[in-house]
Amino acid sequence: MQRLPHLTLFVLLSLALTGCARFEDHPLNPADSATRIEARTLSGAGLRDFIDSVSANKSGQPPKAWDIDRLTLAAIYYHPDLALARAQAETADAAITTAGQRPNPNIALSPTWVTNIAAAAAPWIVGSSISIPVETAGKRGFRLDKTQHLTDAARLRIADAAWIVRGRLRLAMLEAYAAEEAERLLQQQLAVQQAMTEHLEQQLSAGEITRPEVIRSHLALNQMKLNAAAARKRSAESRVLLAAAVGVPVDALAGIKLDFTNLARPPDLRLISVAKLRETALQKRPDVLAALADYEGAQSALQLEIANQYPNIQANPGYTFDLGANYWTLGATALQLPVLNQNQGPIAEAEAKRRELAVRFEALQMRILGDIDRVHAGLAAVLAKWLAAEKQMHIQQDNLHSAVALFQAGETDRLALLGAELENAAAERARLDALVETQQTLNALEDTLRYPIASTLTAALISDSATRKAP
């Protein structure tokens, strides 16, 4: 009997330590992290397997050119914003375990050794009791519901992050296309202006024109050289922006051919039901569904605080060994008395939070509605501008063909032909500017609708591939 306190203590400690987690150190090394980022490529096996697993093309072969849709999947695989959204969802998911835990019982031991006692009696008095907490009013269920709703919201925000990443990627792709086309057109204009300047120099030497005309041509030529240098700089910077939008270093785009087919002309919007998509966006956009999940979480939080009005039960059975005698206590039940407060403060806070999230939800819908209507209203204007620029370019092309025919017939000089070529290049540049403005508006429409325009990807595929990927 003298070993009873030691044995009891040993058993309790063994039970408490069974299943305890161990800390594992995972230090962050900036050099290693930078090396991993710089090693990212668009030809890696992991990326190829991911794209093949979610896309219809399962050839297993690297593409000849990368379009917006394929780069979107690469961004879903690599971009740090999506990695952060997934990590936040995992954190929210881990909280479900915490919310579902039941409170541990407590045990109290008070061994006492009595020295001045008769030798025949055991010199120990050992008092022990166990405290068993019992949650009431369904608190654990409400806690689980709240955490589950917040986890659902975090998962939905992964899909929303994918759409934000795609929007930035589409703008970066458009910038790369515009920069490349602008550089090409400026090089054409530069070559034409160079030829005009040389022709005017010859006329000046022959005494056919005055020097001011040549000076004006030289000034125009120098300005075009400056514009061409700026275009080269813009083209190089656009590649950096595109790489950042994908989530890879710019070296990963070296030797990569980009497919700008979807950007070369606006799609036929008559095939897109904007009114129906507008209604869908107001109800089923990932951020709208996430806001709804947040609201449901606030509802469960309010239910939990209301349940907290009712005190938990604390059962306290015990056992005492007193100098050889055994005493068993059925235990008093400890019950908190809700006399001074009935949890009114936390309930009021939870109610206020629920109202706040309701207002936030309506504000989000109002912002989405305004964005869609604003972009849709401006779309007709930019499309009209695009059509006018397209028409103007065709007129300039016809004018160029006429100038070529007149020059070949000997009815006009080379300077007139070069002037027609320069005007045609300027019309192409105006057409490019109108096209870029139109595509920017279409990108804003796609972003607000959360619907891919002129794409082989579906809205569901973009959202699902974002949530399933775990690099």
Structure, described:
The protein has 471 residues and is α+β, with helices and mostly antiparallel strands. Helices cover 67% and strands 8% of the residues. The chain is built from 13 helices and four strands. The chain has helices at residues 4-17, 30-38, 45-54, 68-78, 80-100, 139-205, 211-246, 261-264, 274-284, 286-307, 344-408, 414-449, 459-468, and strands spanning 106-113, 124-134, 313-322, 325-335. The chain has a four-stranded antiparallel sheet with strand order 1-2-3-4, with no helix packed on it. Strand 3 and strand 4 form a beta hairpin. It is elongated and about 140 Å long.
Give a nutshell description of this structure.
The protein is an alpha+beta fold and 471 residues long. It has helices at 4-17, 30-38, 45-54, 68-78, 80-100, 139-205, 211-246, 261-264, 274-284, 286-307, 344-408, 414-449, 459-468, and strands at residues 106-113, 124-134, 313-322, 325-335.
Rg value: 37 Å
The DSSP helix count reads: 13
Number of distinct beta strands: 4
Classification by helices and strands? alpha+beta
Low-confidence stretches: none
Largest sheet: 4 strands, antiparallel
Relative strand content: 5-15%
Shape: elongated
Write the layout of secondary structure elements.
Layout: H1 4-17, H2 30-38, H3 45-54, H4 68-78, H5 80-100, E1 106-113, E2 124-134, H6 139-205, H7 211-246, H8 261-264, H9 274-284, H10 286-307, E3 313-322, E4 325-335, H11 344-408, H12 414-449, H13 459-468
